[in-house]
Amino acid sequence: MAISQNIATRLLLLTTLLSLFLSLTISTSDPEELVNELLFLQSQSKTGVIHLDDHSISRFLTSTKTPRPYSLLIFFDAKQLHDKHELHLQDLHREFFLVASSFILNNPDKSSTSYAKLFFCDIEFKESQSSFSLFGVNSLPHIRLVVPNVKNPKESDAMDQGDFSRMAESMSDFVESRTKLSVGPIHRPPILSRSQLGFLFAVLLIWTPFMVKKVLTGQTLLHDPKIWLGGAVFVYFFSVSGAMHNIIRKMPMFLADRNDPNKLIFFYQGSGMQLGAEGFAIGFLYTIVGLLLAFVTHVLVMVKNVTAQRLVMVVSLVVSFWAVNKVIYLDNWKTGYGVHTFWPSSWK
């Protein structure tokens, strides 16, 4: 009786271990099941980007034997850093969505080929701190490409920080250089929808006859010299204030002081970064000098009173000297470079 109970216990233990082994084998070694699951998750996402967490990282990466039948391009995000405008996390995340949707759109009906074996994913810090440590991610923005043969996530390819400036195009180049796959052209959403374009076209048709009449009679704004003068001043200010730099780099007007969150920083000391406010301040000083020079050379010369001419000239020179001195001072404070005067040799 004791022997029968011992055999029964051994058989029960053996059956349990066998079932556990089979369940683990099916869950971790069935590549088609994992690919189909990733394809399903991709189809459920509006942008084509699969959201991962610690559990899914374990399922699709660490618990799966290599070589895996797919590669993962992972965007690491942290919502608590979205207010750090200098990181451009939200902008880069949107560009990542564009690359993912463009890749899927440019390569349709290829679920059985290698094109379907690259999946775009994102992961958030608060939800998956263990995964951040697993990849060794300690700074953002960060993008990793995990190819099929990678066993240790820390050995996966990381996108260079300096390549993020080109946004979606640089991400596309990174994918193509590492996977030999073609992402194709980036499909950006149109600025205006079809309904908005139709409305604008209808307004243009209605407005055209009235505009033609105004042009023929010379009664448009383009015939007003003041408009051209204002436009010239605006172009000058736009050019010297670094506004184009602010638009391209999406620079903030100011930053919050890290030591005192209630304090705002309008001038950033250091040559590696320029805030919008300091660019506009320098542009304003340049514009003052330019307007004074234009006034002196085009308006003041028509004043017949010599005393008034001299007084206005002295004031213009003093204000211009003050403005230029401020520009030189701020440039020296920001970059450390000084501007030295050179006197004629005959004066020495």
From TrEMBL:
Keywords: Endoplasmic reticulum, Membrane, Signal, Transmembrane, Transmembrane helix. The keyword Protease does not apply. The keyword DNA repair does not apply. It is a multi-pass membrane protein. It comes from Hevea brasiliensis (Para rubber tree). Residues 1-27 form the signal peptide. It holds the Pfam family OST3_OST6. This is Dolichyl-diphosphooligosaccharide--protein glycosyltransferase subunit 3B. Belongs to the OST3/OST6 family. Subunit of the oligosaccharyl transferase (OST) complex that catalyzes the initial transfer of a defined glycan (Glc(3)Man(9)GlcNAc(2) in eukaryotes) from the lipid carrier dolichol-pyrophosphate to an asparagine residue within an Asn-X-Ser/Thr consensus motif in nascent polypeptide chains, the first step in protein N-glycosylation. N-glycosylation occurs cotranslationally and the complex associates with the Sec61 complex at the channel-forming translocon complex that mediates protein translocation across the endoplasmic reticulum (ER). All subunits are required for a maximal enzyme activity. It is found in: Endoplasmic reticulum membrane. The chain crosses the membrane at residues 197-216, 228-248, 280-303, 310-329. InterPro entries: OligosaccharylTrfase_OST3/OST6 (IPR021149).
